[in-house]
Amino acid sequence: VAITNPFIESKLKSPEEVALALPQNVTLGCSGFTPAGYPKLIPLAFAKRIESEKKAGKDFSINLYSGASTGDELDGALARSGALKLRIPYQSNSYLRNLINEGKVDFIDMHLSHVVKYIEHGILPAIDVAIVEAVDVTSDGRIYLTTSSGMSATYLLHAKDVYVELTDVHPQELKGYHDIYLPSHHSQGLPIPILSPQDRIGTEYVQINPDKIKGIVRSGVPDSSSEFKAPDAESIGIADHVLSFIQDEIKKGRIPKDYLPFQNGVGNIANAVLASMAKNDEFHAIQMYTEVVQDSVFDLIDAGKLKFASTSALTFSKEGLKRFHQNISEWKSKFVIRPQEISNHPEVIRRMGLIAMNTALEVDIYGNVNSTHVMGTSMMNGIGGSGDFTRNSHLSIFMTPSLAKDGNISAIVPFVSHLDHNEHSTMIIVTEQGLADLRGCPPKKRAELIISKCAHPMYRDRLFEYFETSKRLSKGKHTPHHLEDSLSWHIRFLKTGSMK
Ligand code: 0RQ
Asked: Does residue 498 have a pLDDT over 70?
């Protein structure tokens, strides 16, 4: 049953009415995080309006800010309208990605934990309009968000005008999952009082001035969800290396027996690690302090192993969402959804001593990691939270299959073509071939470990050859490189379609 109250009734509008009220030059702050809880109907109607009015010679210009990636109804539709000029801080929409890589849309690829400060300090163009998805709105201005928190609270507070897509896709029991705590609360230098993943320190809603709410649109459209693939052999291989490494660290007394909380990135490999943890008898009572929870969390729940998960978004498949809804009251004790400033906050990450597990596109022989730029120049998705977690966790693990594109790309390269996570922050590199523990190793030892443990046999000898030549010819012998050749593998790929 759709939620209602006199305030909601007084604000109801059609998506088209809202679209007509939006300025031609506008900075939009939208809800949404990987792609959970983003607005759909208003952006689609806005894109339609832009298309028809552009024919009459009107110009539009949109800056679009969100938490992280959103669905096609927002990113895709506004990108296709031709009006999108600037996007922050993370995206994964193929149409938008192409525009960014054609140089037609500016994209600022940011650490997710930095976005709030950039907005509050006016470093980026100020938010004009916030559009958020919610399950309830009260007359005194309480907004109950849906399956993500992301940047929504900050955008709601800073926008001049607010529009809400009030969805009936989720039951009202979703209220209570959020813990909204804003950075202004700790501007006096006080610590963020989160000592373990389940600690709640804020409110279940975002409180704003109700006068700012200029319209409410009813919606019954679910998030576009990516279907969950069963882990493949490579991902399972990577997961096995990671899990036996963690068990070994426990034996050495570096990780307590009841573990440290895990942060887990997005995608197949990240999912495979959790699926393998669920099956592995050595693992029990898992805690997560992460930014995205995906369907793989159900494996842990089914195995009775999920103690608690703190996240900024619940991104479920269609089937996953059904399960979530069936258990929504009971699981309130298992999950909390936090603003990305808090889910990704260095202070909290370092205090809890997380085990961070993220995916690399490529890794070089010294352990520098590229997670964002294909062949050094084309944006994939963005750094997202991977840097927040890598730099500040107790253990930073990077995972990647050793090969991409049918073996035409080696994920282990002489030199990364773009740098996101440098050798000072990365600790453990894993491919299906093996695991390299780089901690405490000087550069040349790192190179030996990465090439021998992680590179695919197809490229291993050539990497050693590069390393030997570098040691011979490099002026500096600390981190030897043969600079003329260091990017030759990428150049070969760009010219011939293969690094072979
Ligand atoms: O190409 O899509 O054409 O098949 O890259 O690779 O192996 O499917 O891996 O989906 O996990 O994505 C790093 C992009 C990995 C992701 C990245 C090609 C490969 C494939 C995808 P196709 P996979 P995933 C939490 C933490 C940064 C943000 C982050 C990411 C496609 O994990 O965006 O970690 N990370 N956030 O074929 C060229 C290479 C390649 C390559 C793989 N070396 N060169 N192409 N591919 N290696 C989330 C948030 O922060 C919100």
From this structure: yes
